[in-house]
Amino acid sequence: MKEEMWHLSAEVKRALDEGKPVVALESTIISHGMPYPHNLSTAQEVERIIREQGAVPATIAIFNHKVRIGLDDEELAFLATRKQVEKVSRRDLPYVLAMGKVGATTVAATMICAATVGIRVFATGGIGGVHREGEQTMDISADLTELARTRVAVVSAGVKSILDIGRTLEVLETNGVPVIGYQTDAFPSFYARDSGYGVDCRVDAPEDVAQIMRAKWRLGLDGGLVVANPVPSEAALDFDEMEAIICRALKEAKQEGITGKRITPFLLDRIKALSGGESLAANVALVKHNARVAAQVAVAYHALIN
Ligand code: PSU
Ligand code: MN
Known about the structure:
Elements: E1 6-8, H1 10-17, E2 22-25, H2 28-33, H3 38-52, E3 56-63, E4 66-69, H4 73-81, E5 86-88, H5 93-98, E6 103-105, H6 107-117, E7 121-123, H7 134-137, H8 142-149, E8 153-156, H9 165-174, E9 179-182, E10 201-203, H10 206-218, E11 225-228, H11 239-255, H12 263-275, H13 277-305
Parallel strand pairs: 1-4, 2-3, 2-7, 5-6, 7-8, 8-11, 9-10, 9-11
Antiparallel strand pairs: 3-4, 3-6
Bound molecules: pseudouridine-5'-monophosphate and manganese (II) ion.
Pseudouridine-5'-monophosphate binds next to helix 2, helix 8 and helix 12.
Family: Belongs to the pseudouridine-5'-phosphate glycosidase family.
Protein name: Pseudouridine-5'-phosphate glycosidase
Function: Catalyzes the reversible cleavage of pseudouridine 5'-phosphate (PsiMP) to ribose 5-phosphate and uracil. Functions biologically in the cleavage direction, as part of a pseudouridine degradation pathway.
């Protein structure tokens, strides 16, 4: 690890030095995933929830030629309000770091940065996956490749049905990524608690997730785990209603010829506009819930390995 490329906040550095539980958080959800001011209030709330559970939050972003791990309030606000922020996945890390741009990390890039400094648990909203018609376009999120190779457990509410959920699960299986249903037998679809697909296994306690993480890595198996944690019932939306909105957004993307790294932010933005406040409320609720579960898993994992 080249010191000059990494900047850890004092709080995160202390926690890692003392072997305390830390939860990584991505920043694309702040810059490209939610509108201001909800992105900022959610980011702050998520950090508070993680601390309340006895873990330390580490939001990750790229500033000023450095990977920043742990942001203060001012830095979170900067990221939440700035227009020009690069979306940084594995492919984009070298350019954005070398050129001194401001970058928000995706699930893939956040996993890389987290694992490099020894953070093993990460909370997000939804992971990327195989796009619809991905069998033609080959648009498969680098999040899946990262889950195949990097040792981090990612707590998410599944994948949005902007993606091909079935093929996403197939790619995860091919790559040996366990998909753990947290207190559920159904793989969730972000806004809804079900997707019509199941999970590989179900566990009901954070200690069990920690046991599976330890077993995987003790076996010498590289790669991560997906902890699928459904949106809380009271905030869940109707699957079919969201499906109709998503289909419209997909049609618009096609008409406008949006491809590559722009497609996910474009779709998220259109879904927000077409579905109004309801989907945003669900998004906020599920992210907070994921943060709580991730912190509990981090605490349990640290108790297990220390
Ligand atoms: N899905 C969401 N919200 C998000 C993302 C995905 O519901 O904010 C973001 C995450 O940062 C994820 C990224 O890692 O989009 C995936 O982008 P791509 O499909 O271009 O790999
Ligand atoms: Mn893509």
